[in-house]
Amino acid sequence: MKFLHRVFVFLLISTLVLESDAWFWSRRRRRRAPVPACSTISSPVGSKKLGCSSPYFEGDCCYYWCRSGYTKVSGTTTKTCCSSEGWTEFDLVCERTDPCPPPQGVIYAKLISSRCFFPYTHGTTCTYQCRAGYKPLHPERTTWTMTCSNGQWIGYFEYCNRDYTQTVT
Q1: Is the pTM of this model over 0.85?
Q2: Do 87 and 120 have their domain in common?
Q3: What cystine linkages occur within this chain (predicted)?
C-alpha cells in the first residue's frame, strides 16, 4: 500500500511540474513572440498621433489631436487595435483654419470681449463698442461682433463718429 501511495504522489508531482512553466522544461520550450494584430496606420491630414508606435498589438490605443492651424470638424480622437477586426472605427477630420490679420479700422471703438487676442485663430470673436464721446453710425447698434473664419473677419463692422451732442470732459 505504501508503494502505491508513493507512486501516486510521484505521478501527481510530476504532472504538476510538467504542466507548469517551472523547472528545466521552461528552458526547452520556445516562447513565441506576440504577433502584431493590426497594420500600420497613418495620421489624418492636419492631425498628430500620440501614445502608440509600430508594431501594434491587441489593445493598443492611438490618440490624435488636430495640429495648430487646424480645427476638429468631426470624429473621434482615439483608435484601438482589436485582433479580429483590426482598428476600431476612426473618422477624425481636421480642417485647415488660417489665422486672421489684426482687425482693421476699429477707430474710436474699444474692445469689450475678453476672448479677443492675438493670434486671431478660427472662431475668435471680438466685440466692440464706441468710446465715450463717440456714437455708432447706426444708433441701434451699440455693440458689434466680428468673428475670425478661415482667415477672414465676418460680421457687421460699425463706424464710430464724434458725438457733438455730448460734452467730453
Answers
A1: no
A2: no
A3: 38-81
Residue 5 lies in a domain: no
Residues 60 and 91 in one domain: yes
Q: How far apart are CA 36 and CA 34, in angstroms?
A: 6
Report in angstroms the alpha-carbon separations of 137 from 25, 36, 58, 120: 92, 68, 65, 26
Domain boundary among 73, 96, 119: 96
Residue 126 identity (one-letter amino acid): C
The 10s digit of each residue's pLDDT in 23-51 is 454 455 556 667 778 888 888 888 999 88
Residue 40: which of 57, 65, 16 has the closest Cα?
Answer: 57
Task: Give the three cell numbers for residue 83.
Answer: 485582433
Please tell me whether residues 125 and 149 are part of one structural domain: yes
Residue after which a domain boundary falls, among 59, 75, 96: 96
Give CA–CA dist 59/65, Å, rounded: 20
